[in-house]
Amino acid sequence: MQVASTYSPVCPGSTIPSVFETVQGNKVPVFFSRYPAGISIAAREVEDAVRKIDEEASEEGTRERHQAIVRHANPYGSFFTIGHCSAFPERLVLFSTLAEVLWLHDDVTEEMDHASACREHDEMLKVLQLNIDQSIFESGSMRQKALAVVLQKAIDIDPKEAPTMIKELRKYLATFDCIGGDFTQMEDYMPYRIANSGYWMSSYFIRWGMNMTLTEEEYASVEQFDIAMGNVVGLTNDYFSWNVEKDSQTDRLRNGVMVLMKEHQTTADAAKAMLLGVIVEQESLAAKLKEERLKKPASKKILQYFEAIELYVGGSCYWHSTAPRYQIFE
Ligand SMILES: [Mg+2]
Predict the structure, then answer these.
(1) Cα 127 to ligand 1 centre (Å)
(2) Neighbours of 298 (CB within 10 A)
(3) Residues 270-326: pLDDT tens digits?
(4) pLDDT, tens digit, for every residue of 210-241?
(5) Which of 105, 157, 196, 214 has the most crowded CB, counting CB atoms within 10 A?
(6) Which SUPFAM superfamilies did the record assign (predicted)?
(7) What's the topology of domain 7-326?
(8) Where along the chain do its domains lie?
């Protein structure tokens, strides 16, 4: 893997494990995030594991395998090693392979009609149990089998946390594609898109990756910050992926450019510029909410969570800014 040659040491004062190196997003012309980005020291190991799981969970020559190859073609690193750079390497490998199977699943189901896609989601839900049904290994689909293997490893590495982990995964699968049709208003779309982009699952695994849990009270105290950052993540994907998604054949395109075009009866170019404005506003809001929160006493865990989520958001912008697939300008 060729990685950006602009590494610098992890910032002084960092509260999270030294398991990543920082990268300079601002050297990338289309990067616009206010947040820093990094890459895991275990990047190579993670990428090898993800390629292996792609082979186990998808058939050669299929669209989803092709999509996975394209996704991994970013010379600056993979989405997981950048976005989840705060995770301990062993946990990062497990989360990345788990999320990769779900990403393949999303690629397979996104072009199905909504009713068929929901049936496929229900099939995958069957795997997500504390006591995995052994018959999955005999009769399941490739994706079910691959998910069952990696889920078992994630359960074994942290049995105490396993029930919550499974609850979060089930919530993702049950909600990320639970509404059919198109959206015409950003106020309806944005909360849906947070779950649809996998933000709630990813932010849970950011805590899991650092072997860290917030109390209910601590988590509630950062909820509004989380919502703003979730908006940034989902809409940043929309911003960069618009050119490759705009002509896709689906009954439910998930892209804020299209929602803004409908809401304001405007062109794609104008809507895309508006979307960038929405993202920057949400980042400002998140920064303001963090500042407010830090006026009150904050545990080390809260500080770690803020720092890791900021790396996730900055990393997401960095990855999208450098992914060859998205660098098509018309
Ligand atoms: Mg997209």
Answers:
(1) 26
(2) 16
(3) 999 999 999 999 999 999 999 999 999 999 999 999 999 999 999 999 999 999 989
(4) 999 999 999 999 999 999 999 999 999 999 99
(5) 105
(6) Terpenoid synthases (SSF48576)
(7) Farnesyl Diphosphate Synthase (1.10.600)
(8) 7-326
